[in-house]
Amino acid sequence: MFFFTLIACSALATTGLASYALEDDYMAAGFFDQFYFPNGSDPTHGFVDYKNYEDCRDARLISNTSDNVIMRVDSTNKITGKDVRGRPSVRIESYKRYNHALIVLDLDHMPGGICGTWPAFWTLGPAWPSHGEMDIMEGVHEQPGNKMTLHSGPLCTNLTNTGGTGKVTLTECLSGDGTPNSGCQIATNDSITYGAGFNANKGGVYATEWLADSISMWFFPRGHCPTDALGDCPDPSSWGPPLARFMTGDECDINAAFRDQQIIFDTTFCGDWAGQPTIWGNATECAKKADTCEAFVRDNPEAFEEAYWSVNALKVYTDGDKKSDAPANPGPAAQSTNTVYQPAPPTGAPKAQGGGSSTGTNGAASFAKREDEQREYARHLGAHKRRGGLKL
Fold first, then answer.
1. At 151, is the secondary structure helix, strand, or coil?
2. Rg (CA), the chain
3. What Pfam families does this protein map onto (predicted)?
4. Which residues pair with 317 in a beta bridge?
């Protein structure tokens, strides 16, 4: 079946209609078997206790059917004691890594828009920041819209003209020691893209196209998704302008700065971004509920009943004639043939508040492999701090 689909997509590419073929359908192959669950300390210093696969399963923090996956946080227990790491939660990291791909995620619910939370859907290279990081969906507290961010080493610094509909709010992609670690960011204040507004609209689809000279991110709310976005041969050139587009320029080489990306979901609390006193204080409604982020997360389990991911689809496409490690050569964008939703950009640029970077693992498969990989990633991520907050 895959062979015939690949031929069909390649044939379409010769007509200029499409160039992608499905490489991985995470829902069709046993979702959690394709991820591992790190259960060490949070590299972003969150008030969170990430659980391994068995503990997540037994505590009913995860569940899945053939067409839906749920990942939630503990919403039952107050967190007591001095030596606890924080509220139980889930972080998963794909075993597989990609180079140049189209990643399409269909969600009907996400854990954002809740005081204390810091959820993210993102990708990460094996050595941070030199192999790069792409934050596709991320925010803190009751943030009204999505923030899309890149972190990189010295091969990609200042963000140039993007061609997307979102607003550039941070321009320095360079992260790591001696930098603010805020990354370069494109944002929107459209509430339908994140958190409570996203959930009220029954979610939507995020699509990220990673090419040799650009990284583009589209958002399609429920009912406005192009028919091909989750099909056999998606064609992003027909989708209209993305919400965010990060381009290669004089000071940024996308192809050199981003490689070997794995897919990650996590929900942490407080930490290097959401836990900053200024960020908590600026989230006015949250600050009314407790003096600190950690105090709120510790004492209010019922506040997190809606802090869960509900995944309908996760698909990764690669060039129909190449594998995911082959370079892509995009041509000029075609005129849009689909009517697509375009979220409004924010009216003002949030201010960076300093801080760290955004970072951001399976089930029954190979515990030895998982432990080896956890040690490897711990070595890379141990000093990795997530980005500093943005004034909400």
1. strand
2. 20
3. GH16_XgeA
4. 22, 102
Would you place residue 289 in the very low, low, confident or very high pLDDT band (cuts 50, 70, 90)?
very high
Nearest 10 degrees: CA dihedral of 70, 76, 82, 85? 0
Question: Measuring CA to CA, how many Å separate 205 from each of 75, 172, 336?
Answer: 26, 27, 18
- pLDDT the model gives residue 237: 96
Q: Cβ atoms within 10 A of the Cβ of 241, count? A: 17
381 pLDDT band (50/70/90 cuts)?
Answer: very low
Cis peptide preceding 226, ω within 30 of 0: no
Beta bridge mates, 247: 214
Specify the length of the chain in residues.
392
Q: How confident is the model at residue 321 (pLDDT cuts 50, 70, 90)?
A: low
d(CA 135, CA 204): 17
Structurally, at CATH architecture level, domain 22-327+338-381 sits in: Sandwich (2.60)
> Rounded distance, CA 24 to CA 41, Å?
30
Active site residue 23: no
Active-site entry in 23, 54, 93, 138: 138
Separation between Cα atoms, residue 386 and residue 4, nearest integer Å: 43
CB hemisphere CA count around 197 (13 angstroms): 14
3-state class of 89 per DSSP? Answer: strand
Closest CA to 124 of 316, 357, 359, 326: 359
Known catalytic residue at 306: no
Catalytic pick from 23, 93, 133, 209?
A: 133
Residue keyed to tokens 């990764």: 316
